[in-house]
Design goal:
This protein is mainly β. The protein contains no helices and 22 strands. The chain is 0% helix and 44% strand. The protein is globular. One of its GO terms (molecular function) is hydrolase activity.
Length: 330
């Protein structure tokens, strides 16, 4: 998560109507309101736990004047289209004293593991870990923060975690910046799947260079928010290009080993919307979810206010072999 917006969610709100978006959406863009009624939710990650879906996402402090208190919202759905706020994971302990954000969730043996970033510490932000049996009440990892990168190409910061099972290991993709804190890039780490995912378990696989760095014109100086999908022997990673509202848009890359990545397209896979649409300022921070029936959904954030508000939306991803394509609205 980058560049905190100017304003932002308690009761659910839907986005204003606009021209038809480029991708067919599941339901209506959704957000939680702040105390002043400003809708703001971002950074979605979705799992299935039993007969319900849970979405984890970033919420700002309820009071717009508050400087601290960014936290994780938890929403519940039974159809991936309508969502109800089910809980909040608020800051706890020294590592999260200024806030937490950008969660990435995975279910392993019936337990929800949540990887999220500390917030508000600049180059000192790092990845933390918590777990839950019910998906709402979490136990913090005593070794938090559990991961930060050490390569000389980066500043030692880690945000925007996402994880995926890869054989006998859990891969963790993260965003970081160069030592000057200007360019945002992606790296990958791994922990044994039978480990506790604590601080001692992780090995940085991107010690010498980033896994992916901005190169294309639309990516500007930022690649962040990795989102994994497993497709047979191949991994697909959706990512956000451009900092928030520059505009931020979504691309994807593919890999056979989780370390070396090749872009799937030179143009945005999911661009920001046309002027007047709900996501004209950005289509950003993807979260990928594969359901039990094998269908894939891409969750993302968008707004038409240059970041003063933010909504969450989803579209189904279809596959031509291992190449994703969007459902186009008519």
């Amino acid at each position: 998560m980058t560049h905190p917006p100017a304003a932002t969610p308690i009761a659910p709100t839907t986005a204003p109507a606009g021209p038809t978006p480029s991708a067919e959406l599941l339901g209506t863009p959704w957000a939680v309101d702040r105390a002043d009624g400003t809708p703001f939710s971002k950074d979605p990650s979705v799992i299935r736990l039993g007969d319900r879906y849970l979405m984890y996402f970033t919420l700002p402090p309820e009071e717009p004047s508050a400087q601290r208190g960014w936290h994780v919202g938890i929403a519940e759905s039974h159809d991936l289209r309508t969502w109800t706020l089910a809980g909040r994971l608020r800051p706890s302990g020294d590592a999260e004293a200024r806030g937490l954000a950008a969660p990435g969730a995975v279910v392993l043996d019936g337990v929800v593991h949540l990887f999220y970033q500390s917030y508000g510490n600049g180059p000192l932000d790092a990845i933390c870990h918590a777990w839950s049996q019910d998906g709402v009440t979490f136990i913090r990892d005593a070794t938090n923060p559990v991961f930060r990168p050490t390569g000389s190409w980066n500043c030692g910061r880690a945000i925007d975690a996402d994880v995926v099972v890869d054989g006998d290991r859990l891969l963790l993709a993260y965003a970081t910046r160069d030592p000057q804190m200007r360019v945002q890039m992606l790296g990958v780490a791994a922990a044994p799947l039978d480990s506790d995912f604590g601080a001692a378990a992780w090995r940085d696989l991107s010690l010498d260079a980033p896994a992916l760095a901005p190169e294309l014109p639309w990516e500007l100086e930022c690649i962040e928010a990795p989102a994994f999908v497993r497709r047979g022997e191949q991994l697909v990673m959706f990512y956000a290009g451009g900092y928030n509202n520059e505009p931020q848009q979504i691309g994807y890359a593919v890999s056979e080993d989780g370390v070396r990545w090749t872009r799937g397209t030179t143009e945005p896979f999911l661009p920001n919307g046309e002027p007047g649409s709900w996501n004209s300022s950005e289509s950003g921070h993807p979260g990928a979810f594969t359901d039990d029936d094998g269908r894939t959904y891409l969750f993302f954030q968008g707004n038409d206010t240059r970041g003063r508000t933010n909504f969450l939306a989803a579209t189904e991803i279809h596959w031509d072999g291992d190449r994703p394509r969007l459902s186009q609205s008519t």
